[in-house]
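ok, trying the design again with the full structure, not the truncated one.
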């Protein structure tokens, strides 16, 4: 089973930073990769995306733009989510997946390849 794997979650104080890593299987390294989060009692939402390796354009929801940065290291088959100026409302389980779907300031952006693969998620808690 093809599966991605997230690491890097944890507890951080408001205003702090955290970097999540997503290990991407070799078969998916050219795909667009999305970061999603699900807070308790809420639906999962896409928060960031990096397009496929022909482009590597990045996309963000308005709430995280300017605070979060998504990047790719193709040599390491990894995608990262650098999160700065974290807020308590950023608390959620963060997952990466081989698809994108999020509302950016320019409209809805999505990428889907007919089959989606997910990681198990990593908990991010922002609290003092």
């Amino acid at each position: 089973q093809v599966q991605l794997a997230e690491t890097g979650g944890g507890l951080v104080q408001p205003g702090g930073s955290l970097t999540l890593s997503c290990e991407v299987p070799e078969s998916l390294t050219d795909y667009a990769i999305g970061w999603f989060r699900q807070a308790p009692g809420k639906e999962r939402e896409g928060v960031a995306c990096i397009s496929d390796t022909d482009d590597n354009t990045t996309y963000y929801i308005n709430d995280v733009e300017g605070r979060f940065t998504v990047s790719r290291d193709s040599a390491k088959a990894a995608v990262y989510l650098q999160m700065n100026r974290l807020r308590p409302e950023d608390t959620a389980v963060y997952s990466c997946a081989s698809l994108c779907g999020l509302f950016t300031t320019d409209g809805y952006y999505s990428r889907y390849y007919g089959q989606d693969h997910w990681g198990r998620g990593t908990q991010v808690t922002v609290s003092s």
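Keeping the full-length input from now on. The radius of gyration is 14 Å.
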